[in-house]
Specification:
Two copies of one chain form a homodimer. Chain A has 348 residues and is an alpha/beta fold. Chain A contains eight helices and 15 strands. The radius of gyration of chain A is 21 Å and the shape is globular. Chains A and B meet through helix 6 and strand 13 of A and helix 6 and strand 13 of B. Chains A, B: Keywords: Oxidoreductase.
Chain lengths: 348, 348
């Protein structure tokens, strides 16, 4: 039998389950070795990871399971973090993939991963004129989230008034641009002056505000939406949702995508204004992108020309090196990132 | 000019705006006189009121307006309470109605009312083999509410698991029976043993429980819905909603019809488990029956044969005499009524 090359494989592992805000030190680096070959008879795919995606939903996978509904299983303490990423196939036991293919999908937070394609769907990357890192964002899970959330859940109509929270994030910045393409009036909420400037000057939002500087969110919303909100794309939950409920127009829609303001609290905040759902006949609908991945080909047809023609832009915040991944993920929850948070593991 | 007959007209008026639970003494009786003739040139309709409907939404009209969204304007202190009722036309300036017609719609809490049909839609009663009082309930606004809420908002499917709160009330008892006709598993929550017995023994619910005897609503729901809830018909809000959110099945639906547990609180309770909307892809939709009255003819075609064949029954709680109306309305909020609360003003 031929000797199989074995290399060092740096990894990011979860320490213990996380309470409260995740810290860089909740994760740790470790090095194992890995054979750069798929085991004999396996249908798995061995990849070299290039870009990793930091996404808010990952916080929920760091919590000790408590039997309540959750999206995805919790990571196990001492095991490798997993998440969306872009990778290059080094070896494949799956006839759908071959050495040299570029792919995106769920991979490990490590230099090399052996991916079981029976359990995790990998998407082959066919369009490489676009930056590869975009497949962690606009062309990956966050892009599909924005697309499905806006077009499938929000039922948007031309000229409607749209509010997006966490608006400069990996999903929010796209929802705003999709809404502008539809001729909507679009306002974004974000957590710093830099993000507000980005929304207004680079991402084409009509208005944006820093929620941290608004003592009265209800008053802020009334200022930006004197006639009320038709569509709220919900990424934050809590106080913002409560204020939004007071400002929805009749027959408005709330697409509940995430509630990042709540993930690190011991108990979620109470939302008091739900009766407004009735008075204004509001539809509030939670959704998870997994249910919409069958739309991915249609999404690419829509979004690729828009990217190539510069009609949609995408702002990334790149942390370089696997070592920087724990701080990059933790930083999502203090709002440190400006734009979609990506970790560059290798350039190719 | 002929002398026009003038008679005494007993009325129920609102005292001051109501804070907290409404009391019988928040309303008062007064007597005026009224001419039993429509004023010359007016297109109004003069009616003798027969049955008045006590409905939870009326509580919200007793609150001082605060600029927040509401259903219908507030009653003015010192003015006659208005609400749904059944009446007989004594005189009409509207060519669509003639003396002797029976009608249902918004009328005054008084013996005789002059109704402006330009602003309030009156429905003519064509089927009098059914008890007339039913037009305040199953054949009136609550019936339409149950019909639209269940069939149009809940998107029910055969065999689904359905929970209804305030289940023995004017709307809830119908939703449960509609769901049973569709082959659903139906559980009702109510506030007394008598109501629980009614749900199980007369209204055909599969199960029912007294929420006042459940210290842990989450545990109670897990007992009745070990596999989770597909449809929640929401009449109460607050703690029940919070517990339900933990027990919804993927792609479940919540039709938000009312939140009676919240109407008398200085501030609505906080609802903490909204993140479950996302994890389980729940659609929560508020609705108001006014948007569905165009379906009334279709509703009658559906419900009348079911009533006549005894496949749907309707439980009323009748208070006799206009004097009893204030206590009957206040009683809704302590759960005193068993079944739909009606006030009998006159028998014909």
């Amino acid at each position: 039998m031929a000797e199989v090359e074995e290399v060092r494989n740096k990894q990011v592992l979860l320490g213990d389950y996380v309470n409260g805000f995740p810290k860089e030190t909740d994760m740790f680096l470790s090095t194992k070795t890995i054979q750069l070959k798929v085991p004999e008879g396996s249908r798995a795919v061995l990849v070299k990871n290039l870009y990793l995606s930091c996404d808010p939903y990952m916080r929920n996978r760091m919590t000790k399971p408590d039997g309540e509904p959750s999206i995805g299983d919790s990571f196990k303490p001492g095991s490798t973090i997993t998440g969306y990423g872009v990778a290059k196939v080094l070896d494949s036991g799956d006839p759908d993939f071959k050495t040299g293919d570029l792919v995106w999908g769920i991979t490990g937070w490590e230099e090399y991963s052996l991916i079981d394609t029976k359990h995790e769907s990998l998407f082959k990357i066919h369009h490489t004129d676009i930056p590869l890192s975009f497949y962690t964002g606009i062309l990956g899970m966050p892009g599909m989230t924005a697309y499905a959330g806006f077009y499938e859940v929000c039922s948007p109509k031309r000229g409607e008034n749209v509010l997006i929270s966490a608006a400069s994030g990996g999903v929010g910045q796209l929802v705003g641009q999709f809404a502008k393409l539809m001729g909507c009036y679009v306002v974004g909420s974000a957590g710093s002056k830099e993000k507000v400037d980005l929304l207004k000057n680079k991402l084409g939002f009509d208005e944006a505000f820093n929620y941290k500087e608004e003592h009265d969110l209800d008053a802020a919303l009334k200022r930006y939406f004197p006639r009320g909100i038709d569509i709220y794309f919900e990424n934050v939950g809590g106080k913002m949702l409560d204020a939004v409920l007071l400002n929805m127009r009749p027959h408005g829609r709330i697409a509940a995508c995430g509630m990042i303001s709540q993930y690190n609290l011991p108990q979620p905040e109470g939302v008091h204004n739900l009766f407004c759902l009735i008075t204004n006949r509001i539809r509030m609908q939670g959704f998870v992108v997994f249910d919409y991945f069958h739309l991915y080909p249609r999404f690419l047809e829509f979004v690729l020309p828009n990217i190539r023609q510069g009609k949609i832009v995408y702002v990334e915040d790149k942390a370089v090196g696997l070592e920087s991944a724990p701080a990059a993920l933790a930083g999502l929850f203090s709002g440190r990132n400006v734009g979609k948070q990506v970790v560059v593991v290798a350039r190719g």
